[in-house]
Amino acid sequence: MVADTQHIKNKQSGFTLIELLVAIVILAIGLSAAATMQAVALDSNSIANRVSVSSFLAQQVAEEISSRNIADPIFKTNSQGLPYQFVDWSTGAEQQAGRLTIPGAGTFTASYSIQANTFNGASFPGMTEIQVTVNNVTYTTHKMVN
């Protein structure tokens, strides 16, 4: 009976230290890849958020400019890259020229250009082209001024 117990002990199998270390290294590589992927996803999400807010602000600025009275002198002359004066919606106070800080989204700069008698770059009497750029996102709209 003692010989049978000895024989069973010798046949028991398990993990060696080398096998365990190899498994840990493979797990570490997998976790490192997952962590890198998560960091890239967070960065991409942040970029998408900034582009989304920039697009929203550019459209809002363009709509505010185009809602002005057609007699406004802004529509009679060409202008290029003028800073847009943001107004704080909650207080009505003007922000630093061309800059707006939105908590959680960042600081945005806006400028606008107006081309009188233009539609999509072509001469068009009575039409004004309004182009707004916010942090490299450009939004273009048009307004009939006659």
Structural summary, described in words:
With 146 residues, this protein is an alpha+beta fold. 41% of the residues lie in helices and 30% in strands. Strands 1, 2, 3, 4 and 5 form a five-stranded antiparallel sheet that branches. The longest helix is centred in the first third of the chain and has 50 residues, at 17-66.
Question: What brief labels describe this structure?
Answer:
alpha+beta, 5-stranded antiparallel beta sheet, 146 residues, 5 strands, single chain
Model regions low in confidence, pLDDT < 50 over at least 5 residues: none
Q: Helical proportion?
A: 40-55%
Structural class: alpha+beta
Succession of helices and strands = HHEEEEE
Q: How widely separated are the two ends?
A: 111 Å
Determine the mean pLDDT: 85
Strand content: 25-35%
Tally of separate domains: 1
Q: What is the overall shape?
A: elongated
Rg over CA atoms, rounded to whole Å, is 32 Å
Count of beta strands: 5
- Give the biggest beta sheet: 5 strands, antiparallel
Number of continuous helical runs: 2
Q: What would a concise description of this structure say?
A:
With 146 residues, this protein is an alpha+beta fold. The chain has 2 helices and 5 strands, in the order ααβββββ. It has helices spanning 2-11, 17-66, and strands at residues 79-83, 99-102, 106-119, 122-134, 137-144.
Secondary structure blueprint with pairings:
Elements: H1 2-11, H2 17-66, E1 79-83, E2 99-102, E3 106-119, E4 122-134, E5 137-144
